[in-house]
Amino acid sequence: MPRSVIAGIGKYIPKNTVTNQDLTKYMDTSDEWIQERTGIQERHYAERTGETTATMGAAAAREAIDRAGITPQDIDFIVFATLSPDYYFPGCGVLVQRELKMKEIGALDIRNQCSGFVYALSVADQFIKTGMYKNILVIGSEKHSFGLDFSTRGRNISVIFGDGAGAIVLQPTEDDNRGLLSTHLHSDGNNAEILAMFNPGTHANHWTAAPLADFNDAEIGDMFMSHAMIDKAQNFPNMDGPTVFKIAVEKFPAVILEALEQNGYQPADLKILIPHQANLRISQFVQKKLRLGDDQVYNNIQHYGNTTAASVPIALCEAWEKGKIQEGDLVCLAAFGSGFTWASALLKW
Ligand code: COA
After folding, report:
1. Atom 47 of ligand 1 has which residue's CA nearest to it?
2. Domain 179-192+238-348 falls under CATH 3.40.50.720
3. Residue 82's pLDDT is what?
4. 92 exposure class (CB count in 10 Å sphere: 0-12, 13-18, 19+)
5. What pLDDT sits at residue 232?
6. 216 is known as an active-site residue
7. Which of 99, 138, 211, 297 is the most exposed place for a label (fewest CB within 10 A)?
8. CA–centroid distance, residue 324 to ligand 1 (Å)
9. Quick check: bond before 2 cis, omega within 30?
10. 311-321 vs 116-129: helix axis angle to the nearest 10?
11. Between the CA of residue 105 and those of 74, 130, 166, 173, what are the distances in Å?
12. Mind listing the pLDDT tens digit of every residue in the chain (349 residues)?
């Protein structure tokens, strides 16, 4: 059975840099608070119009495709992970298929928030291993800046998130010394509401509380965007940060060890761990728990914030561009996020 190998990798970071100091214009926060609690110094925001999750994803994809030495016409499947799609539906995969003028290939969107990219990679890996596809484009992209609460009410979340995109091209290899060794996916829906954006969503039934024929036009107008929904900030992400932190520092090390143990490795064997960039303090906790050296963990949250589904491919791409990953190196990708979902992937570069 062939293994999957990353044949090309790319990223797209929007030009507009937003410092912690910039955020103090909108909310009661400080550079000191943000750096101390999260490690973040700055993040990037996409253009307000014209630059979307799909266009950023397509830009990262172009780079990954070029570096793989192929063309968009060679791609035979797209897996796109995001929690901030251009449209509620359709997904972003088809928009990339259109923008890059690809063939009428399959396009799948993955909704697994911060674990989205590792989940997407795992899905793509199955198609490669079965021999169904030969060039799969896997993208993680987010435009968080479009929908954050920039008032003081939303400060515990808004300061954390940033925009960006990363992408890889996955191909089969028969080389036993390279490729994706295993992926590990988990979820626990008991904490689904701890980190969630509730609306628009069918749980509230605020749009169609009863058959439309029972309402007059004015009532239907009210239901479309209820004031209660906006007053409770349910159209923005909601998060119980301390609970997320507590569970993340338990699940991250567990899923990394699971990947290493399944393949007969120890943490010391890792060339580099690319953790989802949730919070620098979480990464430092994981590093300490697994007794990894500073050069064994890659962090770039300081400059990008948490870019959710894009954070792992952006960090992987940057680490590779800096020469920190060479052929044959043992690399672990790991993520944890809303759901809760968490995942890891172990690969030989
Ligand atoms: N600036 C200044 N003060 C802020 C603030 C901000 N941006 N955000 C929250 N605060 C305040 C709170 O209002 C609270 O004030 P109070 O004590 O007067 O009530 C105080 O800081 C402490 O809040 P708390 O939420 O307990 O802080 P914390 O130390 O847990 O840090 C997070 C908050 C969000 C940074 C931290 O919980 C975290 O990183 N959690 C994990 C989040 C995460 O990784 N999410 C993504 C998952 S993939």
Report:
1. 337
2. no
3. 98
4. buried
5. 72
6. no
7. 211
8. 32
9. no
10. 80
11. 10, 17, 20, 22
12. 999 999 999 999 999 999 999 999 999 999 999 999 999 999 999 999 999 999 999 999 999 999 999 999 999 999 999 999 999 999 999 999 999 999 999 999 999 999 999 999 999 999 999 999 999 999 999 999 999 999 999 999 999 999 999 999 999 999 989 999 999 999 999 999 999 998 888 877 655 444 455 555 555 444 455 666 677 777 889 999 999 999 999 999 999 999 999 999 999 999 999 999 999 999 999 999 999 999 999 999 999 999 999 999 999 999 999 999 999 999 999 999 999 999 999 999 9
Q: Is 150 in the pocket of ligand 1 (CB under 6 A)?
A: no
> Is 276 tagged catalytic?
yes
State which fold the 3-173 domain adopts: Peroxisomal Thiolase; Chain A, domain 1 (3.40.47)
- The whole model's pTM is what? 0.94
Residue 338 main-chain phi, psi, to 5 deg:
-45, 140
Instruction: Give phi and psi for 51, each to the nearest 5.
Output: -110, 115
- Name the residue among 200, 194, 201, 146 with its Cα closest to residue 337: 194
Q: For residue 306, give the DSSP letter.
A: B
Q: If you measure from the C-alpha of residue 156 to the centroid of ligand 1, how many angstroms do you get, rounded to a whole number? A: 5
Residue 168, beta-bridge partner list: 9, 138
Distance between CA 293 and CA 271 in Å, rounded? 10
Give the residue whose CA is nearest to atom 48 of ligand 1.
337
The structure tokens listed for 105 are 């290939």
Map residue 153 onto helix, strand or coil.
Answer: helix
Domain span(s) for CATH 3.40.47.10 in the chain: 3-173, 179-192+238-348
For 234-248, b/e burial (b = at least 16 CB within 10 A) is bebbbbeeeebeebb
